[in-house]
Structures are given as C-alpha cells and as structure tokens.
Amino acid sequence: GSGHTPYSLFGWVVSDFGLIEAIESGLVKIPYLPIADDTQELDEPVLKNLYQHTYKELPRKGQKKEKSLAKKEGKKLEDDIPDLPKLVKGALDQFHQHYNEYEKGLRAAYEEKSTLFTQPPVFIVVCQNTSMSRELFKFIAGFAWEDDKGKPQHRKGEFEVFNNFDQFGRLKHKPPTLLIDSDALDNNEQISDEFKKVFAPEVAEFKKEYARLYGQGAAEQITDAELLREVVNTVGKPGKLGAHIRCVVSVSMLTEGWDANTVTHIMGLRAFGSQLLCEQVAGRALRRRQYYLQGYDKDGQPTDDQRKIKRYKFPPEYAHIIGVPLQDVPHRRWCHHHRETAEG
Question: SS3 of 320, please?
C-alpha cells in the first residue's frame, strides 16, 4: 500500500560504487604505483610517500606568511633559484622522461583509440603549501624577474616540454605549465594582456557562456582570477582556455569536482592524513578518456573482430601515480630506480 511498484527500489536509495570496484571493473584508468626501488627502505618505496621522506627540506610556510615576515623585516620577497631536495629532483626527472616516452609511443602502443591522443597528456603536482608550489612551478616551468637595474631576466624551466619560456627568454604565447593556488589567484601574473590577446576567441566564448548563466553584467566584470579558474577547469577540453595545458602545479585545488580526463601522471608532495584524501587526489588522474567497448566503433556498431568473438570490456587506459600512499588498491606495478640528482 505504499504506492510504489512491489519489489522495486525506492527512489531515494543511493548505491555507493567505490574506487576499488571502479578500478576492478575497468570504469576508470588503471593506476601504476611504485612497489619497489633500490633505496633499501624496508616499509615501502620512497616514491610511494615522497613528502614523508623530503618534508624537512621543503618550505614549511605559505607565501602569505613568507611575504608578511619579509614585510616586517623591511624586505621584499624575491624569487631565488629553486632549491629542491635531491629526491624530489630525481623523481621529477624520471617522471618527465616517462611522460615523454609515454606521449611519443607507449600510449599509442598500449591504448587502442587514436582519438585518445588528440589532446596532450597532463602531469599534475599537488603540493603542501603555496611556497612549495611556487618552488616546484619555478623549477618545472621557469620564472622571470628584474635585476637591480630593472632589466628583465629569466631562468628556463628544467623540462623543455613543460617550459613556459622559449629559447630567447620570451614567455610562450601558450605556456604549457599552470600554477593554481590561493596565492596565484590573489597575485595573478599568468593572465596578462598578452594572454588575453592570444586567447581572445576562447575568452569571448567563456564570457558568452558566463553571460548566459549569470547575465551580461556579470560577464563584463569577470576578473583575472576567474579566467585563471576557467583555464584550470577546462584542461584537456578542445577549443577552451585550458586545452594547451600539459602541467598543473596546485595546492588542494583539485581534490574534488575537477573532471579533466587527459591526466596521465600525478605527483603528490603533501601530507596525506587519510585514505579518502589519497583516493580524492589519485582520482584526478583516473577519469577515462573513452567509454566504448572493445570490438565496437565510436557509433556503437560491431567491428569485424566483434562479429568473430564477443568482448565486452573497455580498452585499458593508464595513470602513473607517485607520492600518494594508496593502500589496498588494484594497480599495475612500477619499479623505481633511485636517482640522487635530476642530471644523474
């Protein structure tokens, strides 16, 4: 007498489908986790919890506090050459090499659809605080400053594929590396006049959509911080402000609600107090690019192979994860050979 169809589920019943089940069923990418290295650590590989092995050598205060302390001392917080721990440099170097190998052939060899590769793969670094994210960003993408005479200077990033500067020291029209944290939003140096000029069509499209949702008046008052948020929100989406991004350096900005599906590499350089947080951060790299079944084309029609043998599964897609101490999660194995320096 409830009015509901007998033996049917109630309309408000919610079913939880956890990360482990999603990985085992192939609904998300398969994570590669480090399971061994040559550092002689007994508990776990150093790259499985990178922050735990390096935090004493990393910045402990955020940019806001650092600037406040510098102001009290009558100084100006200057950008110095990044001084990262050797283990972090070595990990970044290996990840960069793997990123290049992955883009140039491995993903084409092991993942089926050519349409998977139209957008560049994305590498994410999740940091503990804004000072740390700033140092990682400078190391990866390079940075600019003015010397004592007011002459512009620059230092290139360590990795060409993520470098925001060209060979002549000029900021690239479409910088591949993005810094997104509270300090970057407050002191936005990435959304320049040149950026707005290069991305004029994308900015116009964003304002058009913004006006549709919030009104023309709101669209005309869009701030640079909102443009920066739109860049990170559209990473991997063709024709949008973030389509060209290859590397995102962040602080707690990508733990939930971020749906980029081009992420293939993720590094955690922060404290992880729970497995839920580990799953949230790792989950940013696990969204699949495609959901077609093997043996079917993009229109759902069976191919010749499917007519011969029935295969009802998604083709494999992969995500490489370091620095995120996930426990009891199905994964592929990745053995790491420790390096003391980025060059070694």
Answer: strand
Q: Does residue 32 have a pLDDT over 70?
A: yes
Question: Residues with Cβ < 8 Å from 299, sequence gap 6 or more?
Answer: none
Q: Which two tokens stand for residue 264?
A: 């293939």
Residue identified by tokens 């701030």 is 223
pTM of the model: 0.79
3-state SS, 185-247, equals HHCCCCCCHHHHHHCHHHHHHHHHHHHHHHCHHHHCCCCHHHHHHHHHHCCCCCCCCCCCCCE
Q: Which pairs with CB-CB distance under 8 Å and at least 24 residues apart come from 328-331?
A: 328/20, 329/19, 329/20, 329/23, 329/31, 329/33, 329/279, 329/282, 330/20, 330/23, 330/24, 330/30, 331/23, 331/30, 331/31, 331/32, 331/33
3 pLDDT tier (thresholds 50, 70, 90)? confident
Which range, of 2-6, 48-52, 239-243, 251-255, averages the lowest pLDDT? 251-255
- Per-residue pLDDT reduced to its tens digit, 252-271: 766 566 778 889 899 999 99
The pair phi, psi for residue 229, each rounded to 5°, is: -60, -40
pLDDT at 341: 42
Q: At what angle do helices 63-72 and 130-141 cross, to 10 degrees?
A: 100
Check residues 187 and 70 and name the one with the higher pLDDT: 187
Instruction: Determine the angle formed by the axes of helices 130-141 and 86-101, rounding to 10 degrees.
Output: 50
pLDDT, position 150: 72
Q: What is the Cα–Cα distance from 244 to 147, expressed in whole angstroms?
A: 31
Quote the CA–CA distance of 243 and 233 in Å, as a whole number: 10
Contact 28, 287 (CB under 8 A): yes
Amino acid identity of 136? Answer: L
